[in-house]
Design brief:
about 80 residues, mainly alpha, Protein Inhibitor Of Neuronal Nitric Oxide Synthase, 3 helices, elongated, dynein, cilium, cell projection, DLC_sf, motor protein
Length: about 80
Amino acid sequence: MEDQQEGKKEEKETDYRRLQSYPLIRHSDMNEEMRTETMELCVTACEKFSNNNETAAKMIKETMDKKFGASWHAVVAKDMDSK
């Protein structure tokens, strides 16, 4: 019985993380095409390097620098509070 409860708890946490793992844009001055490409890149990097945020951020930054010109900054973190 305890194992079932533990399994359900882990399943709920996984579902919650999945809901919170995709980008939400509140404001952007990027054009639509650039914004879409950036979101797709972020999702791809975070899925590919789900256990290594630093590597995901590095992939995002390097790709953005090559594609759109230098001086992009990327931060990938497990928990970010927007209060």
